[in-house]
User: Fold these one by one.
Assistant:
Number 1:
Amino acid sequence: MPEPLRTFRAELHVHTVLSPCAEVEMIPPLIVQQALENQIDIIAITDHNATANIRAVQKAAQGSGLVVLPGMELQTVEEVHSLCLFEETSQAEIFQKIVSQALPPLKNDPDHFGEQFVVDETGDFIRREDQLLILSTEMSLSQAWRFVNEMGGIFIPAHVNRKAFGLLENLGFIPQDIPLPAVEISRHLKADEAVQKFPQLFGYTLLKGGDAHRLDELAGFNEFTLAEPTFAEIKLAINSFEGRSLKIIE
């Protein structure tokens, strides 16, 4: 018999205090608490060009029922942000090595850009990340997609409608040589208006991202129909396979 399917609410675009533009409240226990209060079942940690706080959030979520997927918000050479999601945290950490080498060797200036804190599962300070994270890497969109795809991950251009770091605003089109499984629209654009405003989105699976830099931005706009809340099931849902599906909650 087919596995029974259930609905799970997800927010796949969440920053921690490792991202210099995130608020100091974005520490593991508070992220987990807020997600649970908002009845969110699945989150992905997607700091700017960084992965060092993923395990801390996963540890903070142990026993809570909240699923924490490993990810990153990558900034490509085209100045386009993209969500890079992985099944295993070790895969994200391997990708981190590639990304760190592709970043310009510049140090962060906390007074100008903000702090970049690596913390433990309680939110206690471990270290500062010295490499400036909010820069474009030397990777192109196609190169980044290939790296993520070869690792079995999911590559999703983020907030494509936004003027800052959005694919459509920066490039004006969706590259046809990259088979994208989905694209993310920002929290300020309704799904039913997205294709009307941006005809390039026709035919693509849409996600809606809270792009949470503060706790009150943990919105959970995405409702997945899955057998269980896993990366593999999410991948099926994004591709509308085997009865799995995704819809945006407005």
Number 2:
Amino acid sequence: MTAPGTLYVVATPIGNLEDITLRALRTLKEVALVACEDTRRTRTLLSHFGIAVPVTSYFEHNKRVKGAVLLRALGDGKSVALVTDAGTPGISDPGFLLVKEARAAGVPVVPIPGPSAVIAALSAAGVPADRFVFEGFLPIKPGRRLNRLRALRELETTLVFYESPHRILATLAAVGEVFGEAPLVVARELTKQFEEIVEGTAASLAERFAKGTARGEFTVVIPHTKSAGAPTASHGSRDEERT
């Protein structure tokens, strides 16, 4: 009986190609197949690094059919790399389903960690991040978006979510309605040429982006008002808690 191949979950750059890891490059060179959201974007990435490996699409609208194909390949002993268009697979994309199915089938799953817009934004936001909630994308419909923000307001933790350029102004308006004058941080085009990380109220940031800079992908960080600015526990206090 043929031993199954390995499914590698490979993080790729969110903008700057220099952010790819040596391990990711080696893995992409060694697998039999790369499964990706957009074959054109992934071929461009592979070509940049001189990697000639077959690619196949795996995205929201073909995940069921293509997932079965990939599981057969893995069952035949072929190793597959799963990548997303940018960042870490499984974060706000259908990659988690392939991972779930592979694990259920007894296929080894190995993460190759790397870039993530969530972590990059948090690291540069200067807000408490010992606990945070990642919300993905908020609902598109205004009423549902407001209701979701009201529910999130009750959580005593930092909030992070993604937003697209054509919805960022409406989303900031909704954030302002729910969170008022609370400060937040918005990161735009992370790691790219026009990267921008700005802080302000929802209203002031909406005014800023309304002037023609609402371009690229956005990551919004809202520190919880009760924890914003509060010092985190020192390593010493954590050690004391363990004793």
Number 3:
Amino acid sequence: HAASVHPNMVSHEKDYDMQLDAHKSAVAKAYGLASAGYNKPALKFFSQGAEALVDFASLSHGQKVLDVATGTGHAALYAGRKVGPDYGSVVGIDIAEEMVHLANSYAKTLSRGNVQFVSMDGEHTTFVDNAFDAVLCSYGIFFLPDMANGIKEWKRVTKPGGWVCFSAFGDTAFQPQSDLFEDRIRKFGAVIP
């Protein structure tokens, strides 16, 4: 329930009922299954990219930050260090509940009391207008069926003069590995859509 997270930022709805369409349900399920291995060294580029995005946002002490599609929370936890434990705070949201549970565990282990994670759809949040100084989304925007709608929502919850920062993969991401992988799969007769 989002009502337990920063009450002054959340609309006064009693419960947040996350209604996911088929696409978002499939994404949530896939990332839920992948959650246990998400922080392994082979996926280190996710954490490096998350830190680069936080650094780019130039966060400062006392700011309030939203991290959309937070995954296991690397960007949010790193942002929590930047905004400080006294007055700064970070909320990470994700549609994959397993990721949210892992992120909350990491926050507890790292004693990041100023960082919280909740299950919420980044296209349809329950936060009030102008609730955050910055909104971050590290490698997650391309999962939104309507990316422009997501950015519009993030702008709504960002204070005037605040930042909306997101990252995505370029055309050459994962090359040449992805082409080599596809070639080998095809040799076994598998059809890749």
